[in-house]
Each structure stands twice: as structure tokens, then as C-alpha cells.
Amino acid sequence: MNMYFILAWRNLWRNSHRTIITVSSIFFAVLLVLFTRSMQLGTYEHIITSTLSVYTGFIQLHGIGYWDERSLENSMLLTDSLTGQISRLQHVTAVVPRIETFALASSGENTTGVTVTGIDPQKEDRMSKLSEKLVKGHYIHSGCTGILVAKGLSENLRLSPGDSVVLLSQGYHGTNAAGLYYVNGIVDLPVPDLNQSMVYMSLDAAQYFLSMYSRVTSVAVMIDDPDHLSSVEKKLKDSLGMKYEIMNWREMVPELVQSIEIDNAGGIIMLGILYVVIGFGIFGTVMMMTEERKREFAILLAVGMKKLRIQLMIILETMIIGLVGVVCGILFSIPLLFYMKAHPIHLSGTAAEAMLKYGFEPLIPFLVDVSLFLKQLIAVLVIAAIAVIYPLWTISRLKISKTLHA
Amino acid sequence: MVTGIAWKNIWRNKTRSLIIISAIAIGLCCSLLSSSISFAMGEQMIQSAIRTRLSDIQIHNPKFTKDKNIHFFIANAADIVNQIEKNPKLVAASKRVTINAMVSSPASAAGVLVLGIDPGEEKSISNINNSISKGNYFQTDLRYPVVLGEKLASTLDVQLGSKIVLTFQDISGELTGGAFRIAGIFRTVSSEFDRSNVFVLASDLWDLLQTDTLYTEIAVLLNRGANVDSAAQSIRKIVPDMKVDTWRTLAPELSYIEETTSVSLFIFMGVILMALTFGTTNSMLMAVLERRRELGMLMAVGMSGKSIFLMIVLETFFLSLTGALAGLAFTLIFLILLSCTGIDLSYFAKGLSEYGIAEILFPYLPGFMFAAVTIMVIITAIISALFPALKALRLRPAQVLRM
User: Under a CB-based contact definition with an 8 Å cutoff, are residues B360 and B394 in contact?
Assistant: First the structure.
């Protein structure tokens, strides 16, 4: 085996230019693929985690029918025993109740539509780090009647901490909901739409405002590891599925999941095209290697070498070209990707605006994952394996006398 | 003479040349086709936004844009429309009253943008009248008719003929509102739009606002392909005291998509061509090395270095160009076929409709892409020829002939 390897290695360097060009084409392709894929997958992860932590949580419980018809009539009763039952499940890290409804907010001359969100201030803060977005005033605490107003909204209504605002809405069972609230603090939310419309108040205050005592519209469940999602979801469905609507984040934001799928499919197609082109290059090299060495093979056969052994040598040669290229590509990209992971690209200008418009922080983080490297290794080896079919076939059909006389 | 030799040289090793030619053809064809899909998606996203709410150009009172308060209306909207309609690039203009409002039904409430329109005018601007899935577009005897999106209708749990209440601020800042009956329900390709916009008659809004004729927005649609920025510029000259925005400034995220689609596709094409360069260089290098003797002989009998260099460059050039032309031809054939059938993307319908893309996509490529790709191929051909051609130049006739 060792001898085959030495032979194959030396054969490769008989035409060093060709080997180097082929190896560097693979190197270049692998590097490019790793860079773009890492960026793409990192962006997906960023988008998903920010959606999960700020909006949906991993799993949500609602009153039956709430998701299709977001009405307070479809709200659910939140009892301590229910919260306890969920949080006792393995892998559950937080149970975050919310009330969401629409209201009109008036201050002075100005009136505008807002989204009133009743939250458990401590739990919400742990999930979405709301208090870190505070730019003026104080954060709210359970039981307090103050509200937090998003920065854009506060500018439209000309509000600052201490000012009062009138909220008008429709409560539970169609009751009239109206109240005067004092602004505790201003939060600067990254998403423009939310920054123009969000009002937070404590759960108790929201329940009082909307006359829906002990009721909430949703309960978000956070877990420690995305891998446990389906097992936690199953346990919840088994024990509570009859009484509540239980949905995982994929069901709640199917648009997001699908747009990621579309983008991902596009990315994979583009990389596939790149690999096909590189594959042709490898095939060309292997073919030339075979054509110009037919005579040499014939002589080897004539002096008693077995066809199988020549074929083994050729397989080794092709695999070495592929492996050297892909391994160099991976080795070179590891420090690059780790650097990019530590220093994500901060977008600016129109790119940032576009990303904010769809609700995400304008960041392009990178994802470094062992499977990403393994996939490239496999892809290149598969290409090499396909390319090597040609010389194997040529050698198996080689006629000694004919080739030597040619 | 060199040209003829170069062309014939390519076909001396048919298999090798065909591999390179097919690599270039397949590489180009695949990447152009996937580019055409991206182009079509981007274009459709922009067109659907323009044809639902955005329109090409919008005119507002400069103060309106900030507060969205109808207190800042357009004083002489009808005059402005009369003046700008003389522009030959303009297809139609529609006057609108836009108000942020709360819509409530017995089941639920939501924040929406109310567009008060004149159906006759609006029809020529937006395609909502063609997107009606239930009921009709204001062809009704109902008092206070309203047309809203399917998504909103299901959130509010209302059907055709149901009553909804719109609450908004009047011109002096007081809350006012009224009950409207659902005359029609539309479904556009954009779920976002269907969730957040309702159409009513402008005259009904004036009733509720207790005002005379009043408009806050003039939407302008241009000929397809007309230059939006220059049209906006000429409108600005007519109405210097109004704020004239193009869809690019109104929806920077769409404009960003338009910009990045072509940039990222050029980068992608560049990457593919660079990958092809490796293959071409390799193949040409082999061609030079196996013809060392022959090239040495040519030099020995007096062929100049310049001609040798030119011959190798031309060979590479012909090789690449043949591949490129084959690739472009295949792309054209596929595009023509696909433009009849379209590509069915209904599997991704939900994700697409979030961005306003229809399920059946008709891929297309702007003409400049073909030209640009041909130029890029020529450049890469020359780059990949340089190394082999220099190698040929450095041959010593005396040495190679004695080998």
C-alpha cells in the first residue's frame, strides 16, 4: 500500500503545474462554499433566534382557536397549577405569559393605533432582554400601573417619562376598555414597525384594563436546547393538548420557515453549479492524465503489472488531488470563519434598512459547524470518485499490443 | 492565418476541447437560469408592491409624511393631477385620502391603513379590482362600502356584508369613525398587504370627517420601463412645494432588493467563470506542453513569438467563446420554454406571499445580462490564456527540438 501511495504521489508531481492548478481550483471552491454557506446558515440562525426570543418562544399555548382568530374571546385562563405543570417539564427554562391586543392611544392632540402587550416584566426581560432596550425612565415591575412606550411611538405622541396617555380598546366579552396610564419608560426597539406601535404594561394592569382577570392570550415556552423541541412539544400535547392550542415556532411563523427554505434552496443550487464546474475541471485533468499515459500503462502491463494495481494507483492519485484541495480549503477557512464568527458583519445603509424592515437586527453572523466541513469533504470526494470512472474504464479496456504499436 | 490555425488546433484533441466547452456551456447555462429566477422573483416583488399600494410616484404635503396627520392635506390636488397628466410617460394618477385607523369587529380589533379612493381612478393605478376573491369592487348599493384583504377578514372574523367599525382622528384631532359594510374581499400575492390595508370611498370619509373634498396623497403610475427618477424630477418642477417620492425612497427595502439582485448575480457569475478559468488554463497548458516539439519547430522556421502568443490566446478565446455561445443558446431555449409554462413554486407559497411573489414564476433575463456575460467570458478567456501562452513563449527551440 505504501508503495502505491509513493508512486501515486510521485506521478502527481511529474506534471506539477497541472496538479497545482487542479488542487487550487478545489481549494478555491471549498473556501468559497464554506464562506458563503457559513454566512447563509449564520444569518438563518440569527433570524430564527431573534424571532424566537423576541416574538414567539419555542412553543406557545393559546386558548383553542386563538391563532386563527386573535380575539380576547379566545384567551385562556392562566392558573398557577398550569404554569407549574409546564415549568416542571424537563428542558423547559421559562414560561412567559402575555396579553396582546390593539388599542388607540391619545395624548394631547394626537391619537394613534398601538399594540398593547401585557407582560410579566421579570420573565419577559429574561426572554427578550427588554430592559436593555430602555433609553429613558424606568423599567416596569409586576403590579405597577406604569407603561413602557416604544421610542418611535413616543415621538409621534410627544411623550416622555411621567406623561400620561389615554388608552382605548375593546375588552374581554366586548366590554369597553379605557384608562389613563403614566409613562414609566421609553424603549428603543430595533424593528421600525414595532418601534412605532408597542406599548408594554404589566400583566396585572393589562388584565384590569381589558377586564380579563387571570386570563392571558398566550403562554410562550422557552427550552434549553432546540434539539429537545419535539420531545417537549409532545409531552405538552399529551398532557394539555385537549384544552389548549399548542404550536411550535415553525407552525407560528410558516412564512419565515419557508422564506428560509427558499433562500437555502437557492444557495444550494448556486453551490451545486460551482461544484459541477469544478468537477469538469477535475474530470479534464484525470482524462488528460490517462490519455498521455496509455503507453506507460501498456508497458507496465507488458512487464507483468496487474490492471487492478494500476487502477488502484490511479484511484489514489485522484483522491490525493481531491483530498489535498479540500483539506487545504478547510484548514484555511477555519481561522477565517472563526474570526468572522467573532466579528460579525454589521450592515449599514439600505441593506440595514431592508433587514430592519423585515424585523431583524442588521447583522450577518457566521456559523461554524463540523457538519459544514464534512459535507464539503464528502462533496469533493464524490466528484473525484465520479471523475475516476473514466481512467478505470480506459485501463480495463486497454489492449497491450495495440497501445504499444500506436 | 493564425486565426485559422488556432481554430483547427482546438479540434485536434476533440475530447479535451469538448470537456472544456461543455463545462463552460453547462456552467453558464445553469447559472444564467438560476439568475433568471432570482431576477423574476425580485421584479415580481417590486411590481406587486407597485401595483397594490405603492405606485411609481407618490405626492404628499411635506408635513404629512412625518406625522401622517390628515391635517396636512394636499390643498389643490385636482389641479396638480391636471398638470402632471400632461407628462407623456404617465399612465394614470389617483387621488387618495389615507388615514391610520383602528378597525374593529365584534370579534377583534386591528390597526390598518384606510385608503379613501375614487374606484374609477384607482382601477387604473392598482390591480386590487382584479384581485377580488369575494364580492365586488365597489359595484354595490351598500351605504359605506369597504373592501378589505382576506387575511384581515379572517382576523376580524367577518364575511361579505358584515359590519366593521373604523375609528380614526379627524382634522382637528378629535376621534371619529363610522360603520362600514364589507362589499368585497381581495387577496393579492402579498399577505402583508392583505393584513393591513382597507379601501373605502373617499366621499364616505369626507362625510365622517365633515370636510369638503380633501386628499392626502396622489399616486402616479408610469409606463413600464419609464425612468422613475426623471419623471419624479419633472413632477417636482411642476409642484415645488410638495414632497414627491418614488417607490425607491418609499420602500428602500425593495430598492435594495433591486440593487443587490444584479450585484450578487454578477458576483456569482464571476465566481463560476473564475472556477472555469482553472479548467481552461489546465487544458490549454496541456495543449502547449504536448506540442512543445511542434511549437519549437514553428519558432525554428521563423514564426515570431508574437504570433505564437497570439495563436495560443486565440485558441483559448475560441474554446471559451464556443462554450459561451452554446451556453447562451441553451439558456435562451430554456428561457423561451419556461416563459410559456412558468415554474410552479406553490410548495413555497406561504414564504413567497410574505414577500409578494406569486406561486407561478416566469423567469426572464434582462438583455444586458447576456451582453455582460459575453464580455465577462472574453475577459476570463484572456486571463486563462496568459499562463499557457507565456509558457509557450519561453520554449527554447534548440532545447525542445533535441528532446
Answer: no
